[in-house]
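Record now logged for everyone:
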Amino acid sequence: MPERVLFWTSAALLTYTYVGYPVLVFIWAAFRTRPSLVRSNIEPLVTLIIVAHNEAPRIARRIENLLSLDYPADRREILIGSDGSTDGTAERARQYESAGVGVIAYETRRGKAAVLNDLVGKARGEIVVFGDARQRFDSGALRALAAHFADPSVGAVSGELILSEDPSDTAVGRGVGFYWRYEKFIRRHEARVDSAVSVTGAIYAIRRCAFEPVPPHTILDDVVIPVRIAARGYRVLFEPGARAYDRAAATAHEELTRKVRTITGQFQLFSREGWLLDPSRNRLWLQTVSHVALRLVIPVLAVVALTTTIVLREELFYRGALLAQLLFYVAAFGGFLLRRARRTTPVLSVPYTVCLLNWATVVAFVRFVTRGQSVTWDRAAA
């Protein structure tokens, strides 16, 4: 009966994506850990690059954070690219030129990818570290990242983004925090097997000689850059000791906006980098499909699983499967009702966050096919 085939196929893929693959990569890493061949306290010339648009309220604080990092000043270069800012971002950043900070102001807004291409071309460092204006780095972040590049097989290293857990955080923030810990668990074990298939845009480093300019209108430069580096045979590692700090999204709208942009970029990635889905060309094919591609079809799988159990509800097993799904969505609705509450339970906040992310996937797909996602971005609330 086709309904049974559709149910079991969708249920198996949903289970594999959410649970099976994390378990698989955990076991895989336990038996096939591939550590860095060399790791030492080296001090290569490092260029830190920040692209900013209308970040005047916090650019000074961000530059001061970079200047305070535990790394020799003569082995560190800071480049700030102001992407068409109209609020005095470049002027405030130039107050630090005497401290060795380079500021390049672009009069018209070009998008982060275009500015990054220019700034990497101007960088003197053999290692380039990318970050955003919103976060701050831990004092030892540069040393933790740089240590891996003593191994010539390493082409990129992702740091770890720590989301603050404020007692006043809403249910959305706590749900997102749980999801982010789950995501980092997967990345950490992927890197132990071979390479992570994505990095943390808030803090990651690359070997400059491995950089390829990203195509114009790229939405997710922090995905395209690492996958192309991996395609050249380099490893992409995860270093939890290189920390950047940020806060979780305060509202559902804020998290939805962030995730829609990210997921639209993933649709764009596969449309442009089709080789990622070819196992003969992508040594990380299993990781790419399991960690990224399958997540893009989860909304379809969820609808198929629900509708087939409705059709088959006369049978006891499928009636139970339908009840379990309905309970999940009821919990998600409870999380929605309590999304602004200061106190809630993971039983409600996690299902709500999962549904929010799946809705973001639907919105992202529509924006991708209609070209409705801009490559530029607006400053998030501090």
User: Anything to note?
Assistant: The domain at 46-251 is CATH 3.90.550.10 (Spore Coat Polysaccharide Biosynthesis Protein SpsA; Chain A).
